Amino acid sequence: MTQQADQDALYQRAADAFGPALQRVARASEANPEKCRDLLQDMHVALWKSFAVFDGRCQLSTWVYRVAHNIAARHVDRERKHNHARIDLRDISEIADDLNMVGAVEKIDALDRLNAWIRRLQTPDRQVLTLYLENLPAAEIADITGLSSGAVATRISRLKAQLAKDFQEPPHA
Questions:
Q1: pLDDT (tens digit, 9 = 90+) per residue, 44-77?
Q2: What confidence tens digit (pLDDT) does each residue in 104-115 have?
Q3: According to the model, what pLDDT value does residue 64 have?
């Protein structure tokens, strides 16, 4: 097999195995649906390119998440510099059209609130939490982020406590 064929095969294997996870990382990093699709596409392109130098010294999942999180972090930094925190009226009208589906809206709202909360985190915390939500073990999260396993466990504990605090229902009077 040629290097190009190996690169293509590795990419296809990774895309098949981790495609949904890449989508979740993109959604946790970008709220705008169009920009989210662009980010996801950037992740896939970077992943394919990265397999030209992949040497197998780490797990495929570690490599995929490291590439995806690096691209997502760059995207978030770029967006913050441009300060594009605007609400698109088309998004509001689409939400309004779907209000008759209360259960679905509540679930979507909860996920949107969680993703918005995650997007407000600093890059290292956002990376740790999104990987944790993908059920990766602390050791693998440490490999991906470059943190120690202890630091990952501490961040996860602090983030879970902060999440519980921020999403706590106010007492009813």
A1: 999 999 999 998 888 999 999 999 988 998 888 8
A2: 556 767 788 888
A3: 93
Query: Domains of the chain: which residue ranges?
Result: 1-86
Q: Which CATH architecture has domain 1-86?
A: Orthogonal Bundle (1.10)
Please state the length of the chain: 173
pLDDT for the residue 84: 47
